[in-house]
Design a protein that fits this description.
This protein is mainly beta. The protein has 1 helix and 11 strands. The strands form 2 sheets. An 8-stranded mixed sheet has the order 6-7-8-9-4-3-10-11. A 3-stranded antiparallel sheet has the order 1-2-5, with no helix packed on it.
Length: about 130
């Protein structure tokens, strides 16, 4: 039985479904995530083949580095997706976009060495200085 997870941006103009498993959430504390969201980013990921964009007229992709791009809704500004060039078969999705319970937990934190000085990283899961 395939589980379907639905989500959308704040204004609802971007909507999507994932027909398959989601990876547990990972909190990224890198400077780019903090600048894009105003805090750290909690994101899950799914196989691109399980991901379906239902409404996407306002999705805008931004080339944030030479290794990845980030998506946001041009109507409401919501952070949406992250796509690594090295892994085109997967898409990262901001965990807060999902409607209803996801059953996910935060499995760890990455780029902890870049975290802001105004918060403490919760004691949940692993903590890595960088990507690995």
């Amino acid at each position: 039985m395939t589980t379907t997870h639905r989500g959308s941006c704040l204004c609802g103009e971007t909507a999507f479904e994932v027909h398959g498993p989601l990876r547990n959430s990972i909190a990224c504390h890198c400077t780019q995530c903090r600048k894009q969201t105003g805090h750290y980013l909690s994101a899950t990921s799914a196989a691109k083949s399980d991901f379906q964009l239902l409404r996407g007229e306002h999705v805008r992709w931004y080339r944030a580095s030479n290794t990845a791009q980030r998506a946001f809704c041009s109507k409401c500004g919501s952070t949406l997706f992250w796509q690594a060039d090295a892994h085109p078969e997967r898409i990262s999705i901001a965990t807060g976009l999902f409607d209803g319970p996801t059953g996910l937990v935060t499995e760890g934190h990455i780029f902890c060495a870049d975290k802001g000085d105004y918060y403490v990283i919760p004691d949940e899961g692993y903590q890595r200085a960088g990507w690995e």
